[in-house]
Amino acid sequence: MSDAPVLQVEGLVKHFPIQGGLLQRQVGAVRAVDGVTFSIRRGETLGLVGESGCGKSTIGKVVLKLIEPTAGKIVLAGEDVTALKPGAMWTHRRRIQTIFQDPYSSMNPRLPSGTIVGEPLENFGIARGAARDEQVAQLFRRVGLRPEAMRKYAHEFSGGQRQRLGIAKALSVNPDVIVADEPVSALDVSVQAQVLNLLIDLQEEYGLAYLFISHDLAVMRHISHRIAVMYLGRIVELADKRTLFTQPLHPYTEALLSAATAPDPKRRGLRKKIVQGDVPSPANPPPGCHFHTRCLYATAQCRVTAPPLLEVAPGHHVACLRRPVGGDPGPLSIPG
Amino acid sequence: MSGTPGPILEVRDLHTQFSTLDGIVRAVDGVSFDVARGETLGIVGESGCGKSVTAMSILRLIPRETGRIASGSIRFEGEELTTLTEEEMKRLRGHRISMIFQEPMTSLNPVLTVGTQIAENVVRHLGVSWKQGRERAFEMLDLVRIADARRRLDEYPHQLSGGMRQRVMIAMALSCDPQVLIADEPTTALDVTIQAQILDLMIELKEKTGTAIVLITHDLGVVAETTERVVVMYAGRKVEQASVETLFDEPLHPYTRGLMRAIPRLDVEADAAGTRPRLQEIPGLVPILTQPIIGCAFAPRCGFATDRCRRERPPLIDAGAGHLVACWEVDRVRRAA
Lengths: 336, 337
Ligand SMILES: Nc1ncnc2c1ncn2[C@@H]1O[C@H](COP(=O)(O)OP(=O)(O)OP(=O)(O)O)[C@@H](O)[C@H]1O
Ligand SMILES: Nc1ncnc2c1ncn2[C@@H]1O[C@H](COP(=O)(O)OP(=O)(O)OP(=O)(O)O)[C@@H](O)[C@H]1O
Ligand code: SF4
Ligand code: SF4
Ligand SMILES: [Mg+2]
Ligand SMILES: [Mg+2]
Fold this sequence. Notes:
- The complex is a heterodimer of chains A (336) and B (337).
- Chain A has 336 residues and is of the alpha/beta class.
- In chain A, 28% of the residues lie in helices and 24% in strands.
- In chain A, helix 3 packs parallel to helix 5.
- Chain B is an alpha/beta fold.
């Protein structure tokens, strides 16, 4: 891992307007992403974890510039791409590619898989004709598909194989960063292992940076170097994975870890009932600390003051009023 | 747990098939198991291995146009279900055998309030008055710990969060004191913190009511935390069965072992930052169920496979203390540790 970040995101905000009334005027906003800052280095995986609706995919879409941010800054390989219009963004698009949960939905069913994987090579003018076919064949081999399969159509592949097609396509233009949004969530565990191993191999081979989105903590711990835990549009804790799993400091991280099931009946009953209630709506998040409605440690102050994300130890950032810099309110007890 | 002897549910050599354009899908291909009174039995396996079709067969919900129970027997309290009329089945379903599914919206009626839906079920099966039905609905919502249950009675499913809908499903499923509750991926669509709440709730209610639970899931973590006995399925067949402790302590089928080594784990000792041990892959893919499977269904992916495995279907043998495994090479597998 080199130290220069390939992707930097600062104060990223994305609000979706809520329309209402007869005139469809804006009556509010879904604060899908509410001031998020992080960076990823070459060869590094940053995991984004959090419950449904907390804004993970929205961050992915904004950094890919598939949607425009409401505020904030996106720096790709040293260049500020925040304000770039689609045309100017084009040259940068090569640098940042994506893998989806369901690659099938983005594949033209009438084109052979080889053509689909080779599309970016043509679009970016990298290779055409026989040269392109040769590169596509190599990509197929690299992701564990037989080059003869280039003639087959997307529907003729299994879920895991389609994910390999998606990876080959993303890889074709030699990107710096890959946004992987739940890339293994739809796969069976036996196939999930194949795809995770492939992603790790490719990262080591090409120095790829991954923004890896998942709600599965075990997958997250396996693939990530650092992990950002999100809650209702904000990062509440960010740390290297070892620290996050052994010394979590945010009550929500604690709740997430304690809620995870483990494939070991001996640990039965160790799961602690830490968090009750549902995630509030991002259209109407609780004031102050978004987590206060479910937090065991909430005080009156938590209901009014939004805690900033502070670095409490080198590389360990926490947004909680119980965690002043330097102060040590004592460890939270986490099993495992 | 109820003291009455004998299993509440006995499934014997069940074969369920579908006719499709590609041929006959042998979705369930000779599966047998018992469910003891008050126990929690897990059925685990990867997508398409026949878990849901097994559940639907028990409930007789296989779509008639394309599917059928081709052979086998399903006995509930000693009574054969496969030959009951639809009317007779309707009296059982939602009453003595009930179910919850992954997506509650598919089984909740969007235009009826949750109170009305639960009350209807109670009135239909228990023949009580509407007022008593409503009261029961309130009790049930309260039991599954829906806050402000009285008010929620008059809400529609779409007004509830995913976790609350699943609670309503559980409330409805338990409203007539069933002997068996079949739960097909009941927490798969839920967030982890909500999943934990629902699993805890199911276990707690099971202990209160003595209802046996058949919990269908692809998640080994859920199996480990909630079940007492486990059936592992592969390609429409039962390949292993054991108590949950035994299964996780010493899985004997190469497929079960493969599954356990393929999952990333949270509970193992934390590794130094940056080092990522490789996950063990199970090579290849699940077989296509439209072709009859000769021999062991796992043979093309199995590191222990021999010629016999490819020719002859391995029978389920008792490897000790009721630990059943369908594998010719179980001794070699055991030694391989
Ligand atoms: N195009 C849109 N218009 C309006 N609201 C949106 C839009 N896209 C997302 N949202 C809302 O923004 C919030 C964050 O959504 P997002 O898809 O980023 O969540 P997520 O963390 O990826 O969740 P999941 O784990 O379910 O994929 C949600 O409340 C969602 O409903
Ligand atoms: N109505 C149907 N018509 C044809 N084939 C079907 C039908 N229902 C199920 N099948 C097939 O039967 C097999 C078993 O399906 P089943 O739904 O039981 O799998 P499952 O183990 O529940 O998987 P999942 O984990 O994905 O829910 C699959 O191959 C499936 O495609
Ligand atoms: S700021 Fe307060 S409510 Fe928020 S996580 Fe910390 S203790 Fe809990
Ligand atoms: S019977 Fe043979 S192929 Fe099947 S699991 Fe056992 S060793 Fe493997
Ligand atoms: Mg998402
Ligand atoms: Mg199913």
